[in-house]
Design brief:
The complex is a heterodimer of chains A (112) and B (110). With 112 residues, chain A is mostly beta strands. Chain A contains no helices and eleven strands. Classes of the chains: A mainly beta (112), B mainly beta (110). At the A-B interface, strand 4, strand 5, strand 9 and strand 10 of A face strand 4, strand 5 and strand 10 of B.
């Protein structure tokens, strides 16, 4: 089944404790992206990647890192999480400039 | 940055009604997306438009590039259409970065 998976789905952590949210797709998509969704602000793009070893900043990249060492994986790294990074995070992928983006199920992160 | 405005913010309709959700943006775009977010949180792509009109089942999306405006129409609405509908645009000079509207929350009652 074609899908985008994210792990973990739920995470409660404390300020400053490094964490990684994984994202993996099995559709051989070139394009992958991370978004965060906050009440009243909607979805905002954090980082995206056009292909292996090619990443670029979105709207709100501060406090986040990404890497794209393999085509299928695009992990989101929070080196020193802070409470303002408490949010619902979505990973998405698509085939090049294709219209349809496939979204992962979301990761709800709480930073205390 | 491309400002994306959606209206209305919230919409309640009775089953069977024709529904229109609007999206306006501020600068030139290369593409506009309509997304649907289910009550459980999952997000599904509905359409991508760069011109004209697209139809999928009871959903129709139109775009007017000159007026910087798009509409999503739902014909013969059904309670299962209840969801948040999100407009997102890809600016001409923004590469593949997307800017999102805040979404329109639709509730269709039986």
């Amino acid at each position: 089944e074609a899908q985008v998976t994210q792990n973990p789905r739920y995470l409660i952590t404390v300020t400053g404790k490094k964490l990684t949210v994984t994202c993996s797709q099995n559709m051989n998509h070139e394009y992958m992206s991370w978004y965060r969704q906050d009440p009243g602000l909607g979805l905002r793009q954090i980082y995206y990647s056009m292909n292996v070893e090619v990443t670029d900043k979105g709207d709100v990249p501060e406090g986040y890192k990404v890497s794209r060492k393999e085509k299928r994986n695009f992990p989101l790294i929070l080196e020193s999480p802070s409470p303002n990074q408490t949010s619902l995070y979505f990973c998405a992928s698509s085939l090049g400039g294709s219209p349809e983006q496939f979204f992962g199920p979301g990761t709800r992160l709480t930073v205390l | 940055k491309n400002e994306v405005e959606q209206s209305p913010q919230n919409l309640t309709a009775q089953e069977g009604e024709f529904i229109t959700i609007n999206c306006s943006y501020s600068v030139g775009i290369s593409a506009l997306h309509w997304l649907q977010q289910h009550p459980g949180g999952g997000i599904v792509s509905l359409f991508m438009l760069s011109s004209g009109k697209k139809k999928h089942g009871r959903l129709i999306a139109t775009i007017n590039i000159q007026e910087k405006h798009s509409s999503l129409h739902i014909t013969a609405s059904h309670p299962r259409d209840s969801a948040v509908y999100i407009c997102a645009v890809r600016g001409i000079n923004s590469g593949y970065a997307l800017n999102f509207g805040k979404g329109t929350s639709l509730l269709v009652t039986p």
